[in-house]
Amino acid sequence: MKTPRFLAAAFTAALFAVAPLGAQAQAYPAKPLTLVIPFAAGGPTDLLGRALAQSMGTALGQTVVVENRAGAGGTLASAYVARATNDGYTLLLHHIGMSTAPGLYRKLAFDPLKDFEYVGQVADVPMTLVGRPDLPAKTPQELIAYLKQDGAKVNLAHAGLGAASQLCGMLLQQAVGAQSTTVPYQGTAPALTALIGGQVDVMCDQTMQTVPHIKAGKVKLYGVTTRERLKPLPEAMTLREAGLKDFEVVVWHGVYAPKGTPAPVMAALNTALKSALKDPALLKRLDEVGVQVVPEPLQTPEGLRTHLKAEIDRWGALIRQAGTYAD
């Protein structure tokens, strides 16, 4: 029979064994976090990610370090985070490309619906259709007519397979019923530089990247891809107004963590995300380039997961129709 003294000693030992675990859970986050961006520094997702990292870091009381892991349309970074330790210290900010990857790639090293926990959606970034400064078409209607008549002569730039600019370009070609000569680049920045320099004719790109160049007169603005006109570019027609019925592309973004990240950690991350998306400094910065924070019901794990599944279904059908794949 065990003595009271033995039982007391056993209880004390168990208490000391458990205490560090409880303290560790309560202390989260106890060190800086890493927010992985699947595209090059200076691009639209990077700009959004750095602004978000600063605001989330303030909410969490820790530094959130941005790490760029570009390549393969965002799939390299996604696979990296899917395999990362699921302790809440490695996160992924990805855009619409998370939903197109299953359709674009015959083999993926991750499953968007099985290999992640979902922190929540962040923001919708509109896109613009822009042209080189000396492109003869003066209006969006003239550009659409030119694309329909001589599409093969038009060099349509994009930032690489799976990039939002490529997806928008696919929709544009489908909408006008003509194929252009697509010119891929390794990122948004070099594609936009080529457009400004006149090496290519047109491209779609996110407002976070194009608004400064539009206002500086470095590129010609033909329209925006949203249902309504944008506050920062009130003079720009929507492409729907210009004659492309039902044309709409919005680049949504979400934050992900590796599968199995503990529920209390996920709750802390979601709370920090929601707090960041109320930060006046962040909201002002996003408003200046037409970026809209998503409604609060979408800033949730379920909001992101539901939207991701719907977008996988939507873009998968379009990609199969276009016949665009990567090995």
Q: Write down the CATH class of the largest domain.
A: Alpha Beta
N-to-C order of helices and strands: HEHEHEHEHEHEHEHEEHHEH
Q: Extract low-pLDDT stretches.
A: 1-25
Contiguous helical run count = 11
Tally of discrete structural domains: 2
Report the structural category.
alpha/beta
Protein name: Tripartite tricarboxylate transporter substrate-binding protein
Pfam families: TctC
Keywords: Signal
Organism: Aquincola agrisoli
Essential attributes:
D-Maltodextrin-Binding Protein, domain 2; 44% helix; 2 domains; 10 strands; 10-stranded mixed sheet; alpha/beta; 327 residues; 18% strand
Tell me what the structure shows:
- This protein is of the alpha/beta class and 327 residues long.
- The chain has 2 domains: 31-125 and 252-322, 3-Layer(aba) Sandwich (D-Maltodextrin-Binding Protein, domain 2); 126-224, D-Maltodextrin-Binding Protein, domain 2, CATH 3.40.190.
- It has helices spanning 4-27, 44-60, 75-83, 97-104, 140-150, 164-176, 188-196, 207-215, 263-276, 280-287, 301-322; strands spanning 33-37, 64-68, 90-94, 116-131, 155-158, 181-184, 202-206, 220-224, 250-258, 292-293.
- Strands 1, 2, 3, 4, 5, 6, 7, 8, 9 and 10 form a 10-stranded mixed β-sheet that branches.
- The N and C termini lie far apart (68 Å).
